[in-house]
Amino acid sequence: MMVMPKPYSLWNVFSKKGFKATFNIIVGLVGDSLKEYRSASWDDLRSLVAAGNEIASHGMFHLPLVSSMKSIVRKFLRPLLNQPVRTLSVFKYHLSINPAYIVKNVGISHELESSKRIIEENILNYKCVSFVYPSGSCDKKMEILAKNSGYLSARSTKVGYNDLIDLDPYTLKANVWDCTTRVKEANKWVDIACRRRAWLIECLHLVSNSNREKYPHFTHVDDLEKHLNYLANRNVWVATQKDVIESFLKDARA
């Protein structure tokens, strides 16, 4: 979800470099106020699409889409044991802004299909083809549901790089920024991806010049600008999830 004190600030950072981005939207929170921040409105999102960006679905209410005990252990119990403070902080934040994170009783198909439909209803002549699993939780059942719901790809939070030779579009990996990520570290991700000739997806959550709520996935806007400068100097292709997938599919059919 694009969340900043001024919603267009984030896009301005990208547009100065001529870059396009994918904005992952929790549909049920569009236009809401989250603590001191306002999430993007439908007018904001329509303007972003008109400028060449992508709007991807991040579900209706950010409900974890897990269907097996193995997934639950991987996504919740293991992080809780390894990083208890950080995991509890994320959990507490979600509960504070969205009780539906815990108690909303909706089906998995609602998260996938309804969110896609509502995006397409609110953005004229737009087709939503990218999904981002809420909390990164996915398994084979979720991957099949994402494909059957009409998405061309779906991203998890599994850390790593995407090998375009052997790519599964429904289990895309990403490197996620948080409040401990340094610019040099993110620049190194780019270097590794270039050496491997792999697709690097970078995921950011709250981008701002302050973090009074102590949100764990915070990135300072100055750090993002420095990293984008590095990308521009490296002359790498920066594109949306949709554009990369469509290019991959085109090459695969050739």
Describe the structure.
- The protein has helices at residues 8-15, 42-50, 69-82, 84-97, 100-103, 108-122, 140-148, 183-196, 221-234, 241-253; strands at residues 3-4, 22-25, 33-34, 37-39, 54-57, 130-132, 153-155, 175-176, 202-203, 206-208, 218-220.
- The chain has 254 residues and is of the alpha/beta class.
- It has one domain: Glycoside hydrolase/deacetylase (TIM Barrel), CATH 3.20.20.
- α8 (183-196) links the parallel β8 (175-176) and β9.
- α3 packs across α4 (84-97) and α8 (183-196) packs parallel to α9 (221-234).
- The N and C termini lie far apart (35 Å).
- The model is unreliable at 1-8 and 97-106 (pLDDT under 50).
| First-residue to last-residue Cα separation | 35 Å
As laid out across the biggest beta sheet, the strand order is 1-4-3
Looking at the structure, the CATH topology is TIM Barrel
User: What is the gyration radius calculated from CA atoms?
Assistant: 17 Å
SSE order, as H and E?
EHEEEHEHHHHEHEEHEEEHH
Helix content: 40-55%
Morphology call = globular
Number of helices: 10
The average pLDDT score comes to: 82
Q: Structurally, how many domains make up the residues?
A: 1
Broad structural category: alpha/beta
Query: Class in CATH?
Result: Alpha Beta
Poorly predicted tracts of residues: 1-8, 97-106
Largest sheet: 3 strands, antiparallel
**Could you state the CATH homologous superfamily?**
Glycoside hydrolase/deacetylase
